[in-house]
Specification:
By secondary structure, the chain is mainly alpha-helical. It is built from three helices and no strands.
Length: 65
């Protein structure tokens, strides 16, 4: 099981998605997208991982339909 993400990480990721930033299901690509946006490496990696997980889940739901 993975670590639980803090509310601030989830909230920041949600704000970026609402602004229209396109993320992928790849952690590495999301890391590059977030490179200049986040103030710290730890926060960037946590957000990139969360966004990759959410995107994979979204793609799996679409595939089922």
């Amino acid at each position: 099981m993975g670590k639980i993400k803090s509310k601030s990480v989830k909230r920041a990721a949600e704000v970026l998605v609402e602004k229209g930033v396109e993320f992928t299901d790849s952690f590495e690509k999301n890391k590059k997208i977030l490179e200049g946006v986040t103030p710290s490496k730890k926060l960037r990696n946590q957000m990139a991982g969360l966004l990759a997980k959410l995107k994979k889940r979204e793609l799996a739901i679409k595939a089922k339909k």
